[in-house]
């Protein structure tokens, strides 16, 4: 077993070395990780980004596109033969077809390779022809990203933290009842299954409420592991001395197996190879749900950054030591639900939400940024009469009813502290008023040749993530 592990590690090292040499000296590859928390719009982001890189008329904020340096862009088979291909064509048809609708959410890892033919600029531009830059876009559920934080925790630490986060929450009442019914001595497998089902139900309820910390993430997206012992555990209160063969000992063993058999392979095979990362966040939805949701989001974003290995990706260190995430973008999605006069306020709130995480990444040498975007613009802006004046609104088609409606979510504060301070203090509601949220459906589009889907700041997001490499 030890020799096999050493051989496997050596083989992977040689593969990484070969890929590093090829990317450094021949056709460079930028591996972009795309993830986000529930309902943040990962699938729509990738679909719109690729469509707008294929047809670049709506990308003036991407310098290489604005200057004409990108001669052409085309899709190729992804390099990882065992990873499903991101279903770009199906998702684009869903968004831009005669009956537009939002595509299905991300449920597993997928990948897409987009290759760009780029004319170099600078002093040597006239001495060389166009070169090819590959963008390998990796889509994976945000819940799996949160699991990376488990690698640094023991079962006791995870249990204490998990139980503290559900304390007093109504959605956790069935799980607390399952804890009370759990045997103190001899136990059977149905006892462990009942606890695991109750914990999964608690995570599902928290997701419906807009909760951000939903680990272990595979409980919500089990795939082929559903029903296996590695997904049959739950947090338990501390015991003075956990009995040998007792339920707590078994839960701790399964927790460790989850880290070893599920989380570590994902880190090794996918996450550890990422160069650039974007984390999509439905910050407006959290604000709508109240102070507790905003504080939960802030802590979760800090945990997310702790899972990264930020730092500058010098070519020699990449060859010898593996990749490090060198740029991280936190993007508040659904900017089209706000009038443009509030976009700067939303961006400032996003900056404040990731301030703690950003300082740690900057110290490690990574570049971070926060902005408000809409991968696909589903609304138009308008003004309506209101109390003797006018009110800035957006208009769109409601996803639930299909009716057109005007929407004003409330005035976001200019000072993000007006939201973050009461959230940290545990306020039950906003003191300055309520903030609304609606779910809009994509609108029918009529795209001209050379145009990708309409968006808000998708070009600026692309410039931050890949502009320096083009």
Automatic annotation (TrEMBL):
InterPro entries linked to this entry: YcjX-like (IPR007413)
Protein name according to UniProt: YcjX family protein
Organism: Mesobaculum littorinae
